Amino acid sequence: MSKRTNSAKRQLILDEAAKLFKLKGFGGTSMRDLAAQVGMEAASMYNHIKSKDEILELICFHVSDTYIRQLTEVEQMAATYVEKIRALIGRHIQLMIEDGAAVSVGNNDWKYLTGDTLEAFKTARKRYEKGFAALIEQGIAAGELQPVNVSVALFTILSAVRWVELWYRPGRDVTPEELEENIMTILLNGLAR
User: Fold this and answer.
1) Would you say the C-alpha torsion 79, 82, 84, 86 has a positive or negative sign?
2) 131 and 71 in contact (C-beta within 8 Å)?
3) Which of 13, 43, 97, 184 lies 20 to 30 Å from 139 when distance is taken between CA atoms?
4) pLDDT of 164-188, one tens digit each?
């Protein structure tokens, strides 16, 4: 079997596992369920993946690595703090739209990680939260943002976009672009005219 075929099967396993974990939870999904979903024998899957725990780890770190990469890109932008925060929220929403099942696993099933893996994931989450909070804090200091509590602002923003991975799917009465623009308007400008 070629490396490309092996890699494609591995990615298929990860993609389908994310969907199953989102639907049934990590604890409620068996390797047999996953094998049936990808059309393989459970034993054959072990040619591509070591364990269900490894699948969870790969999905969670795919999400956290993506968020950290996006944060780093935004931190390095030559832009106002409002523009940086807008860009970071936009990337956050886009990842949820494009890879909602994996984001759901990263949001909900990370608690099943263990040992050093769990600690590394928590560290990655804290890095993202601290970096995002720093942008808000710097925006307040620069006079671009209202002088609010930084933690309240951070967790309001993160909570306010979290529902996207649960709710959004193609066919809703809003395009991804309209969804993002509506969220930005509400978060950065408020509803009042």
Assistant:
1) negative
2) yes
3) 97
4) 988 888 888 999 999 999 999 999 9
Packing angle of the helix pair 81-98, 100-108 (nearest 10 deg): 100
Rg of the chain's alpha carbons, rounded to an integer?
A: 19
The number of beta carbons lying within 10 Å of the beta carbon of residue 185 is 11
Number of other residues whose CB lies within 10 A of the CB of residue 61: 18
Task: For residue 52, give the nearest of 69, 78, 31 by alpha carbon.
Answer: 31
Contact 71, 88 (CB under 8 A): yes
Q: What pTM was computed for the model? A: 0.90
Mean pLDDT of 66-89: 97
Sign of CA dihedral 171, 174, 177, 180: negative
Q: What is the pLDDT, as a whole number, of residue 47?
A: 86
26-51 pLDDT tens trace: 999 999 999 999 998 888 888 889 99
| DSSP for residue 10 | H
CA distance 70 to 102: 16
SS3 171: coil
- Which pair of tokens denotes residue 57? 């780890």
Q: What ranges in 99-168 are assigned the alpha helix state H?
A: 100-108, 115-141, 150-162, 164-167
8 A C-beta contact, residue 19 and residue 41: no
